[in-house]
Amino acid sequence: MAHSHTASVLPDNQRATCANAYLNVRKRSEELCVPLSPEDYVIQTAPEASPAKWHLAHVSWFFETFLLKEYLAGYPVFHPLYGYLFNSYYEQIGKFLPRQQRGFLSRPGVEEIYRYRAHVDEHMLTLLHNAGEDAWPILRQRLEIGINHEQQHQELLLTDIKLNLSANPLRPAYRGDLPQTPKTSGLPRQHWIAFTGGLHEIGHQGGGFAYDNELPRHRTYLNPFHLASRPVTNGEYLDFMKDGGYGAPGFWLSDGWSTVKRLHWSSPLYWESIEGDWWHFTLGGLRKLNLDEPVCHVSYYEADAYAAWAGKRLPTEAEWEIAVRGLPVAGNLRDSGYLHPVAAMPADGLLQMYGDVWEHTASPYQPYAGFRVAAGALGEYNGKFMCGQMVLRGGSCVTPADHIRASYRNFFYPHERWQFQGFRLAEDV
């Protein structure tokens, strides 16, 4: 049942700002789907890759469930079974369609999904313009979560579209008009940047949105360390392959070696050897491998094995966050338009800390000291996944520029590699 609230005396510009932010993120999701055919919206080639239309419906379900049903009196639910079809994993909300079965749904069709989105948008605007002042703090908080949640799914849309299209022997491009990545005058030499040890603070500092897993800000002790100036490139990773890296168990964690043998890995995801040359599948179709670009679509296991082969290690997430402190959030993020990692340009200091590839760290995804799971179903957003996964930092070439920050903690299982994942090396001093 929706809560009733007193009449609002909030300034109109505050309501307009929130409404515009909501509409902008909703519009961007639909723009990302413009290049798709109706058939592209439906397919699911792996359990971790949802169909495009499921993403569009799920983010609408999120607003419907956590805002409209609770805060808009008389809200008419679009369809009584959509709560089952498009709930992702919120056990406290109710039962949901198993993740691996999302591609079984030929219906509701794409047109109906867009009608569902329009229905939710219409009522969200009504809520934002008319909610009472007493409801506004919690409503605005949930709106921020919902907007950031949809941005996460925009990234997943592109990631999943790439995986789904790659299964087609035609190797169709998501967008044939994607620009080629820029040529460089030479790959910057990798060098080591020193950081001091001691007590450091990490975690979100306040002043803007953050997920609960970025809190609380806390102190952590680090030994002095060196961090590589840029991520590992395709060419450098190819050296690992040529040296028999995928056939040398001494470089691999036990689970990683089992995965290599079970899944017959011999190169990063999307790489193909064609007539003696390496190519890889991109959102712009099949392209010849640029040896200077950051290696992408490698699992934690592969990143860790490369580090062992190189005689180095992966940085911890605390080391990564301390290193990025003071750097602007800028780089090859989604807004650059390439939707693909680019080669580093010659420059001093740390390069490509934001964008290009999510960077693997050596840190398991666990709660910070003092973390408490929020009450209610929204507490399931992050907390219940803090086991068995690894932390990645920095965003990628498909991450919205206004979505990433120094304290942002992404997390995936160590065998997964369909996300835009790469890595840089670290070493002890």
Verbal overview:
The protein is of the alpha+beta class. It is built from nine helices and twelve strands. It has a four-stranded mixed beta sheet. Strands 1-4-12 form a three-stranded antiparallel beta sheet, covered by helices on one side. β5 and β6 (277-282) form a beta hairpin. The longest helix is centred in the middle third of the chain and has 31 residues, at 136-166. The N and C termini lie far apart (59 Å).
Please state the overall shape, judged from the principal axes of the Cα atoms: globular
Percent in helix? 25-40%
- What does the main sheet amount to? 4 strands, mixed
How many individual helices? 9
Run of helices and strands: HHHHHEEEEHHEEEHHEEEEE
Cα Rg: 22 Å
Q: Order the strands across the largest sheet as they lie in space.
A: 10-9-8-11
If you average the pLDDT, what whole number results? 95
| Number of strand segments | 12
Structural class, by secondary structure, is alpha+beta
| Regions with little confidence, pLDDT below 50 for 5+ residues | 1-8
β-strand percent reads 5-15%
Distance between the termini: 59 Å
